[in-house]
Amino acid sequence: MKTISTSATVCRWTARIVSALVLGLILVIAIGEHMPISRLATNLVSHPLSTEALGFAGFSLMMLGLLAGWRWEIAGGIASLVGVAALVEPTIVNGRVTWFFALMAAPGALYIASHRLRHHLAKKSKACGPEGPVES
To answer: I want to staple 90 with a disulfide (CB 3.0 to 4.6 A). Which of 11, 51, 65, 78 is the partner?
Structure first.
């Protein structure tokens, strides 16, 4: 059981570190591109069903998932992966998905893995009493 606990902790902290790096890189790119939020919002209102709107919605959901994963691992992981999936279609370059998508999807998958490992550990500890495993 100690191995599962250690694995869950490694998954959780790896997800947190990678999500912080991804969010930091996104912030650096946004600052470098002089991305004004007001212009982005105006474009989304004028073209509500465009691929840009889908990409922005996916991007926003992915970023919110990365932040939420710090507190709520399963919800943050799912939101992050759904956001990345929505973001893939409008941003495919030359028919290929770039390495950046794997980097953006990794924290979401690790948040979910950490949650599942901790859930598995909790189930095992319930089955084991102070005397050891319960036999049926």
So the answer is: 51
Provide the pLDDT confidence category of residue 124 given band limits of 50, 70 and 90.
confident
- For residue 58, being part of any structural domain is answered with yes
Determine phi and psi for 34, rounding to 5 degrees: 55, 50
Classify residue 119: in a domain, yes or no: yes
Q: How many domains does the chain have?
A: 1
Q: Which residues pair with 93 in a beta bridge?
A: 96
* Residue 60 resides in a domain: yes
Whether the Cβ atoms of residue 67 and residue 23 lie closer than 8 Å to each other: yes
Give 29-50 pLDDT, tens digit per residue: 777 766 666 555 565 566 556 6
Q: What is the pTM assigned to this prediction?
A: 0.74
Please give the distance of CA 40 from its chain centroid, rounded to a whole number: 23
Give a yes or no: residue 135 inside a domain.
Answer: no
